[in-house]
Amino acid sequence: LKQVFNKDKTFRPKRKFEPGTQRFELHKRAQASLNSGVDLKAAVQLPSGEDQNDWVAVHVVDFFNRINLIYGTICEFCTERTCPVMSGGPKYEYRWQDDFKYKKPTALPAPQYMNLLMDWIEVQINNEDIFPTSVGKCKE
């Protein structure tokens, strides 16, 4: 499970948004609202006139890093022996399917499931077709 928390692999550096671009302005607005103690519901609301895809993309890497930190607080207690099933309580079991190695939903121990999940998310974040790094200039 240590590979899940290898900061060179799973903790994505914050992207440097080019000053003057729309993403730079969105990032500044998001950081200001998150650090000001405002209502979180208001902080994540799409600003008027902004593209929803750009707004979501600005927050994905930070969200990924925060989830890693939260999971990091419990990972030493969740081993293949102590967490043999990835579940959401007694009624829900999560199974992994990726259409490559796991072609059918497969029950896995929680640490193995989390490792596959974090690797999958990282591939999505690094996919330029999903999260392009170059965007247009900020609207003025």
Question: Could you walk me through the main structural features you see in this protein, from its secondary elements to its overall organization?
Answer:
Helix content is 39%, strand content 3%. The protein has 140 residues and is mostly helical. The N terminus is likely disordered. It is built from four helices and two strands. It has a single domain, classed as Butyryl-CoA Dehydrogenase, subunit A, domain 3 (Up-down Bundle). It has a two-stranded antiparallel ribbon with strand order 1-2.
Question: What is the strand and helix layout of this fold?
Answer:
Blueprint: H1 22-34, H2 40-43, H3 52-72, E1 95-96, E2 106-107, H4 110-126
Helix pairs in contact: 1-3
Brief digest:
By secondary structure, the protein is mostly helical. It contains four helices and two strands. A two-stranded antiparallel sheet has the order 1-2.
Number of strands: 2
Sum up the overall morphology in one term: elongated
Termini separation (Å)? 46 Å
Our estimate of the beta-strand percent is under 5%
Biggest beta sheet attributes: 2 strands, antiparallel
H-E string = HHHEEH
Total of domains:
1
What class would the helix/strand composition place it in? mainly alpha
- Mean pLDDT across residues: 78
Provide the helix percentage: 25-40%
Strand order of the largest sheet: 1-2
